[in-house]
Amino acid sequence: KLNEGCLSFPGKFIAVPRKKICKISYQNLYGIWTEETFIGLPSIAIQHEYDHLLGVSFLSHDKPLDIPPVV
Predict the structure, then answer these.
(1) Alpha-carbon span 43 to 49, nearest angstrom
(2) What is the rounded distance in angstroms from the CA atom of residue 27 to the CA atom of residue 62?
(3) For the chain, what is the total number of helices (H) and then of strands (E)?
(4) What is the pLDDT of residue 70?
(5) pTM for the complete prediction?
(6) Would you give the DSSP letter of residue 2?
(7) Cβ contact 41:5 at 8 Å
(8) Sequence-distant (≥ 6) Cβ neighbours of residue 59 within 8 angstroms
(9) 13: left (phi > 0), else alpha (psi -120 to 50), else beta?
């Protein structure tokens, strides 16, 4: 896990589990379907941006704190 940030939440960093390698298929500017594999930081960035396309904020990867309820 790497500490990941987002421009939508300045100053907030969360350890998000991401795959080190990802393979995606996409349509390029000429309409040709292409498949490409990304490794390392580009892979993490693509997964982060894909979450945005799905409407998922990186904050949803944050685990809630184990704080006992106040009684």
Answers:
(1) 10
(2) 32
(3) 1, 4
(4) 59
(5) 0.77
(6) E
(7) no
(8) 9, 12, 14
(9) beta
Query: For tokens 């594999």, what's the residue?
Result: 37
Query: pLDDT confidence of 68, banded at 50, 70, 90?
Result: low
Contact present, 55 and 13 (Cβ < 8 Å): no
- The 3-state DSSP class for residue 8 equals coil
Residue 57 pLDDT > 80: yes
Secondary structure (H, E, C), 21-64: EEEEEEECCCCCEEEEEEECHHHHHHHHHHHHHCCCCHHHHCCC
pLDDT, tens only, 11-51: 889 888 899 999 999 999 999 999 999 999 999 999 999 99
Active site residues per annotation: 49
